[in-house]
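Summary for the lay section of the report: proteins are chains of building blocks that fold into shapes. Here we show the chain for Carbohydrate ABC transporter substrate-binding protein and then a coded description of the shape we predicted for it.
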Amino acid sequence: MMKRSMKALAVIGAAALLFPLVACGAGSTSSGKEITFFANNTKEAYKPVLDGFAKANPDIKIKFTTTNGAQAGYQQTLQTRISGGQLADVFVAPPEQLSVLVKNKVVKDLTNESFMKNIGDTNKKQSTVDGKVWSMSTTAWSNAFAYNKDLLRKAGYDNIPETWDEFLVMLKKLKDAGVQKPYLEPKSGLGAPVEAWIGNDSSGQSKTIDQQIGDHESSFADSYTKYYEQWQKLFAQNVMSSDVTGLGDDQVRSEFASGRLAVMPSGYWDVKPFKQAGINFAFGRIPMLHKGDESWAPGSADSGYAINAKISGDKLTSAEKFLTYLASDQGLKAIQDGAGLIPSTKTFTAAIDPTFKEPYDLYFKTGHVYLNSLGWPVTGRSTLRGETYSQLQKVALGQITPAEAAKNLDAKLKTLS
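The coded shape description reads as follows.
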């Protein structure tokens, strides 16, 4: 799954790193009407938000900090700051860590706050632990396949085919037409369509496939092998090179923006940079395994904004004003404009760029998004997700079979239980 930095890689278990909180506390690093804000995106992405809030609240200063690298880097830094008593007043709380944050009493209960009234039910559900809502998720994300219209036309196509086998045929035709790079995935997002397929197959069940695995009612070996075998066709049919095991997110994005890559997993956050690159592009569906399958994509509600449970007085009032702004129409428009996130609240209608219309209609309007890790044990989600990428790298290199990769995930799950 490729999401901005393309989502969580393996990190040390949240429980292990957060254990020292009881002793160290999680005190704030600011005073008075200055509040600190720690986020998992760049200052440039948050500039419209910070500028808009400053204009509306000139008496409140926000000190912004972030971290470089993938989502896993943010999670690890967040854990380090908490255990060192340096937690920001407002911070982004990844759903993978939320249960442990609640357990260690470092997040404020937001359930009955006035700024929560228009937050969507799906977003609230992801932010809920023990019946209470602990973070404010205002946006949602979904993967889609970005495609270069000019390159696809060389093979006689004007959009992404409906099924996986048809997609593979298109990739072969692209190679035959002289397109050297028909499709690439980054090493931290290998297996991009797999979650879409699992989402579709889970939709008619009382428990998702990954919930069944997490509850030990099924296994990766029984459930994932067939999906990994389908994904491996990319290499068996020589339409994607094993070189992807060494490609980072930015490298894949650069290949597409330069006009050399025909198709890549992407999302709404890439609309602005691809337009700036001047290429002729659009976003399309993720091909499903069978004709007639409902369209699904990897995706979920975004991580929510949380308030440090240790702050009070002016700092708490200022933090609450900041979340009120983030949930307002002005704040939602600012985060969409700056970070390329799609607002998902009860009252705000997002203006969607025409290049993203097909995925928006297929996934956002229907709710057909799926994130496998939400079905796994809470304290092992990040580590297990990173392991899926590691195993698929070995499949790509021909070191193990898809069945062995799935079996190895079962072994990893046992160490986390």
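Put simply, here is one thing we learned. Residues 391 and 408 are 8 Å apart (CA to CA).
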